[in-house]
């Protein structure tokens, strides 16, 4: 997974905000998109990402393999929002959905995931469940996103991962 250009700088500035510092149980969700291998370079910003999606060269991560993975992030809502000048919270996610595996930024004292899980699956969603039960708030970020190269399909999905 590759971050959008300047995401590290933007996150560092965002995390210094007093409202972010004061929220002890907030997790900031970073949207994830698959980018077609027919595209030679990743989008540099949300506008470029949405243009690729419009041309069917980008789509939400795991949408064809396992929709619940990112489904609770409500990326259709995220896509409709205007690009902001600075990184901020786009919207809150009010409801937890089972098997949701967002990539997020949070304070280091989040509940740990169960390290007994081996291989693919249940590490992130078990941690997200523990966070949900502990009262965490989920907030989707405005301009930040990650790119995964290549479309995931059930045909090209690793047989080893299915076994795991």
Automatic annotation (TrEMBL):
Question: RNA-binding: present as a keyword of the record?
Answer: no
Signal peptide location: none
Give the record's membrane topology: Single-pass type II membrane protein
**What Pfam families does its record include?**
Glyco_transf_49
Catalytic activities:
3-O-[beta-D-Xyl-(1->4)-Rib-ol-P-Rib-ol-P-3-beta-D-GalNAc-(1->3)-beta-D-GlcNAc-(1->4)-(O-6-P-alpha-D-Man)]-Thr-[protein] + UDP-alpha-D-glucuronate = 3-O-[beta-D-GlcA-(1->3)-beta-D-Xyl-(1->4)-Rib-ol-P-Rib-ol-P-3-beta-D-GalNAc-(1->3)-beta-D-GlcNAc-(1->4)-(O-6-P-alpha-D-Man)]-Thr-[protein] + UDP + H(+)
| Identification of the protein by name | Beta-1,4-glucuronyltransferase 1
UniProt record similarity statement: Belongs to the glycosyltransferase 49 family.
Q: Where in the cell is it found?
A: Golgi apparatus membrane
Gene Ontology cellular-component annotations: Golgi membrane
- GO terms for biological process, alphabetical: protein O-linked glycosylation via mannose
Q: Pathway it acts in? A: Protein modification; protein glycosylation
Cofactor(s) the protein needs: Mn(2+)
Q: Can you name one GO molecular function term for this protein? A: glucuronosyltransferase activity
């Amino acid at each position: 997974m590759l971050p959008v250009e300047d995401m590290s700088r933007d996150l560092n500035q965002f995390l210094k905000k007093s409202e972010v510092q004061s929220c002890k149980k907030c997790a900031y969700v970073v949207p994830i998109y698959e980018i077609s291998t027919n595209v030679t370079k990743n989008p540099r910003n949300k506008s470029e990402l949405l243009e690729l999606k419009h041309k069917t060269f980008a789509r939400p991560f795991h949408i064809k393999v396992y929709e619940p993975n990112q489904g609770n992030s409500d990326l259709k809502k995220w896509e409709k929002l205007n690009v902001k000048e600075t990184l901020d919270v786009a919207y809150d996610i009010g409801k937890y959905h089972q098997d949701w595996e967002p990539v997020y930024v949070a304070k280091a004292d989040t509940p740990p995931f169960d390290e007994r899980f081996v291989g693919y699956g249940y590490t992130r969603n078990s941690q997200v469940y523990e966070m949900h039960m502990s009262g965490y708030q989920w907030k989707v970020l405005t301009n930040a996103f990650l790119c995964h190269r290549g479309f995931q399909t059930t045909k090209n999905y690793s047989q080893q991962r299915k076994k795991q």
